[in-house]
Design a protein that fits this description.
Strand order of the largest sheet: 3-2-1-4-5-6-7
Radius of gyration: 16 Å
Largest sheet: 7 strands, mixed
Bound molecules: 5-O-phosphono-beta-D-ribofuranosylamine
Strand content: 15-25%
Number of strands: 9
Mean pLDDT: 97
């Protein structure tokens, strides 16, 4: 299974995929030309490209980005800190689908600043979700989730420090499971994702 990664920022999730050894990262694209994630990919010898949105044609840009990733051989697209919505044309371009990692237990706290949202709500259990991407904001079917109890948490940085290792583990696990055909959609329930470990 060849993987195309989209990343807008630091790229620590991308780095764990690059370091995994058993994950075949075919290419990395970004909407941010100077994203540190692109430099990480370059250092690992993976081809990169930037697709900044210059005009209003987001669906055209997304189609070019999907076509480029497919040209590099990507069958699965992984959003590793890609912070924008994607057009339908991007989402249907990948035979193995498009997945995302989110630092909250969805459907709680979708969108930006999820950890800040959770802290503001006063939750005591935080967590991470890997899910299929649809046209909504973090609204696609859930593949894997993991929770961590942090009843005394006050600072977003402390929560993120606890969540980051979970994100890295869960994203790699999801990519591996998809790669070996262990993930399928339940024909009886459109939102349920069946995982055979
Ligand atoms: C992660 O918290 C991820 O859950 C969210 O964006 C962040 C990306 O971090 N979608 P990094 O760039 O992989 O370090």
């Amino acid at each position: 299974m060849r993987v195309g990664v989209l990343a807008s920022g630091t790229g620590t999730n991308l780095q764990t995929l690059l370091d995994a050894g058993d994950v075949d990262v075919a290419a990395v694209a970004s909407d941010v030309p100077d994203a540190p994630a692109l430099a990480r990919a370059g250092r690992a010898g993976v081809v990169t490209a930037a697709f900044p949105l210059t005009g209003a044609d987001r669906s055209g840009r997304d189609a070019r980005m999907a076509a480029w990733l497919r040209d590099q051989g990507a069958e699965l697209a992984v959003l590793a800190g890609y912070m924008k919505l994607l057009s339908p044309g991007f989402l249907t371009a990948f035979p193995a689908g498009v997945i995302n990692v989110h630092p909250a237990l969805l459907p709680a706290f979708p969108g930006l600043r999820a950890v800040e949202q959770a802290l503001a709500h006063g939750v005591k259990v935080f967590g991470v979700t890997v899910h299929y991407v649809d046209e909504g904001v973090d609204s696609g079917p859930i593949i894997l989730q993991r929770a961590v109890e942090l009843p005394g948490a006050r600072e977003p940085e402390d929560v993120m420090a606890a969540l980051r290792p979970l994100e890295h583990a869960l994203l790699g696990e999801a990519v591996r499971l998809i790669g070996r055909g262990a993930i399928r959609r339940d024909p009886a329930h459109p939102r349920r994702v069946l995982v055979s470990h």
